[in-house]
Amino acid sequence: MPHTEAIPKPQTIVYPPTSRSTFHQTGYNIGTFLAYRLEELGVRDYFAVPGDTNFFLLDNLLKSPNLRMVTCCNELNAGYAADGYARVSSARIAVVVVPYIVGSLSALNAVSGACSQYVRLIVLSGCPATGLVNSDKFLHHAPTAKNKDQALQAFQGVTAASVRVESVETAPDVLDDTISKCLDSSLPVYIEIPNDLAFAACTPPLPLSRKVNWKTQPHVLKEAAEAITGIWNSSKRPVLLLGSLAGLSLPRLHIELLAEKLGCAVLCQPDGRFIEESHPQYCGQFWAGMTNPEGEHIVMSSDLWLVIGGNWSDLHVVMSSNKQENYRMISVDKDWVDLPDGRHIKPVNIGALVAQLIMSGMKPKTESIPRPKPLLGCLLPDETETPEAPLTLRSSISGIQGLIKGHDTLLCDAGESWLIANHILLPPEANCHLQFPYCSIGWALPAGFGSQLARTRGRSIILIGDGGFQMTAQAVSSMIRYKANTVIFVFNNLGYQIDASQTAMHQGPYNYIANWDY
Q1: In terms of domains, do 202 and 237 share one?
Q2: Does 462 lie in the same domain as 338?
Q3: Is 342 annotated as a binding residue?
Q4: Cα–Cα 20 to 30 A to 506, which of 25, 93, 285, 329?
């Protein structure tokens, strides 16, 4: 029986999750108001690219001795670094500060990727003074005299809110409302702050700590929990599948309590490795046709899939469709539940529902766990290998397996690194992150830099191909500057290929790139 004190009250989550702000001013302006808020959220570092439109904002953020400005070589890398920071920090949120339009549009790709995986980012962009931005004057960084809202419009599709602070009177409410949307929706937000308002006096911040109502109505929560319990108890060989949203929305303890409650085989999608891989119920990853055929058999021979935070993109199902499996699938997403009989129940917060299920009458079902369990983990090196022999992929994987320790973070870039990660068994308290399925090549390098700054224990271990490395290589200079103790494995395939044997997704001269002296 789970320990009841470990289970949260089901309808409510309290924010901010980590700390109280110790930064105080006798008089606040909009910039120092934000500094107070960021510290209150548990943010210790913010990633920045300075420019003439955000100097005043940065000057005021720098007044907080508890916030560190981490400057990056470009805005895209700053956005990726913030993504990595948010994934592993205790605050589960990160901040990036960029210049007006040219900087924010450069960061847009990183923010879009964060949006695809419900990563909380606060993007702060400076902009010209209110009188200028509201005038007909053609301003530098703007594409035309009449289009000064290009970034605001671009961010609308990948954020929970895209706003510009218009006046000092409304600024505190606008900022708090936008930050709240970031927390509540688990999505990025974008805020433009004009130069003249960054240092304008405003009312002091009140504590942001509050109960966030996820709009889960008790009777709807009860309906979902009872429906899932009934379907589960009627099944014969159910399995539990974990997706990326499970780790971003739930404490690992609650995932393991749910698994132990259910007693069944537990498998993870490639981006959902959020249970101890030494756990007796863990049966590996489920990536049909790509890895772990024993685990795939466990899933495909079961009569019910309970999917927590799953994703069914073309990459997750390798260009096929999961719709034919809906008849045996319970899908629990961020704020809704889909049942095998076609019922769609919402609003139901994923954290509240999992807490309810842990305390429910769901019966343990152990039939799906094979005896013996499938062998998981590292490929053994070739028996013929000697120290003088050429390095092989098998021996490289074995070396990485020996290197990774508890509390480390494995960050895998798009491509071959995903396949390599499949053969690495994570030690206790270690975790693995993929930008899956957005797969923007080069993400892992700056994301690894950000995650290393966020971690209080362990190292970030980055797996990346030569093509991805060349896209974001400037992040290495940031690692050196800030003494980030990362480990980088570059898999040099001499181009955009899956391996050194010239296996490309599509053959052509565009696959070949310069062979750097790494």
Answers
A1: no
A2: no
A3: no
A4: 285
SS3 184: helix
d(CA 376, CA 274): 16
Distance of alpha carbon 363 from alpha carbon 373, whole angstroms:
22
Signed CA dihedral, 111, 157, 350, 364: sign only: negative
466 is in an annotated binding site: yes
Is residue 33 in some structural domain?
yes
Per-residue pLDDT of the chain (518 residues; tens, 9 = 90+): 445 445 544 433 434 444 667 778 789 999 999 999 999 999 999 999 999 999 999 999 999 999 999 999 999 999 999 999 999 999 999 999 999 999 999 999 999 999 999 999 999 999 998 887 887 888 778 887 778 899 999 999 999 999 999 999 999 999 999 999 999 999 999 999 999 999 999 999 988 865 455 566 899 999 999 999 999 999 999 999 999 999 988 999 999 999 999 999 999 999 999 999 999 999 999 998 888 889 999 999 999 999 999 998 888 886 455 668 999 999 999 999 999 999 999 999 999 999 999 999 999 999 999 987 766 765 555 555 677 778 888 888 988 999 999 999 999 999 889 989 989 999 999 999 999 889 999 999 999 999 999 988 999 999 999 999 999 999 999 999 999 999 999 999 887 765 544 455 667 888 888 999 98
The model's pTM: 0.92
157, 182, 208 - which closes a domain:
208
- Asked if residue 272 belongs to a known ligand binding site, the reply is no
Whether 324 contacts 307, CB under 8 Å = no
